[in-house]
Amino acid sequence: MILGAINWFNNEKGFGTIQTACSGTVFLHINSFYRRPIDELKRKQIVAFKKKTTTDLGESRATGCKLLETSADFGILMTLLGQNTMVDIRAGKGNKASEHDEEHYCLLKHGTLQLFNGRPERSFIDTVIHYFDKQLEEAKFIQFCTYLEQIAIPLIKTDDREMLEQTLYCHFYAKLTAGILFQAWKHHAFRYIAYTEGMDYEIPEEIVLAHRDELDESDWNRIRLYSYGPTVFPLE
Fold first, then answer.
1. Which residues partner with 18 through β-bridges?
2. Measured between alpha carbons, how far is 91 from 58 in angstroms, rounded to an integer?
3. Which domain holds residue 96?
4. E strand or H helix that includes residue 91
5. Nearest in space to 151 (alpha carbons), one of 88, 77, 89
6. Scanning 86, 115, 171, 234, which has the fewest C-beta atoms within 10 Å of its C-beta?
7. What is the pLDDT of residues 152-172, one digit of tens each?
8. What pLDDT, on a 0 to 100 scale, did the predictor assign at position 99?
9. DSSP per residue over 29-52, as a string?
10. Is residue 89, in this structure, part of any structural domain at all?
């Protein structure tokens, strides 16, 4: 699905537009929602949809739409990992704001707020853990943790941000896989699995060998210093 933010929407007439990072401006009609929203749609709300081209001019219309509303929609938001998530929200027809008004808008940030604003910290923790356990691709582990560290956790109302981070990172360690360990090692991001920050750790030789196609020169130079370095370092 594609995610975008509502540019403007006329609730009386039932239509408006969505701004996306990858597909430009897309027409939105209230009948495009698979479940019609209870409340009025508002500018800047995050919507997930499938794009449908409807005219010979290539104008696009959203179909299969849904607002991001519950923790069950977190996986949809996470499809933005690794993508451009910035859009320019412009005032348009039906807005009180000036038509020249424009605002840079981060879909990941505001999608997170839309899902978790006003909800308890435990709801956020449970949602993140469920996504990690059931849906996260190992190759996106670092992107996921960077999102948590830089965007999500600072937005969550908590009495102890450090404890919130450690709760998540300790769970990641408890469910550690070889692929996750390799990602933490390669990106020098052991803190994401609750290891001491700033230290290097000699990961098992079999993990290195299983991921040897992903290693670059700096990785090999790092491995050279490990106890098994001479046995796995490629001959020059």
1. 6, 26
2. 22
3. 1-76+85-113
4. none
5. 77
6. 234
7. 999 999 999 999 999 999 999
8. 47
9. EGGGBSS--SSPP-TT-EEEEEEE
10. yes
Give domain status of residue 188, yes or no: no
Per the listing, tokens 């750790």 go with 201
Residue 36 forms part of a structural domain: yes
Cβ contact 87:64 at 8 Å: no
- Contacts by 102-107, CB closer than 8 A, 24 or more apart: 105/5, 105/19, 105/44, 106/151, 107/3, 107/4, 107/5, 107/21, 107/46, 107/80
| Residue 22 domain-assigned (yes or no) | yes
Residue listed under structure tokens 């038509």: 99
**Per-residue tokens: 150:** 């830089």
Tokens 């027809």 label which residue? 93
Furthest-apart CA atoms within the chain: distance in Å = 72
Q: Residue 9 is part of a domain; what is its CATH number?
A: 2.40.50.140
Q: Are 133 and 161 in contact (CB under 8 A)?
A: no
Say how many domains are in the chain.
1
Asked if residue 203 lies in contact with residue 176, where contact means CB atoms within 8 angstroms, the answer is no
Write the pLDDT tens digit of every residue in 28-51: 999 999 888 889 999 999 999 998
2-10 and 25-29 beta bridge pairing:
unpaired
Specify which residues 20 forms β-bridges with.
Answer: 4
How long is the chain? 236
Do 51 and 23 contact (CB within 8 A), yes or no?
yes
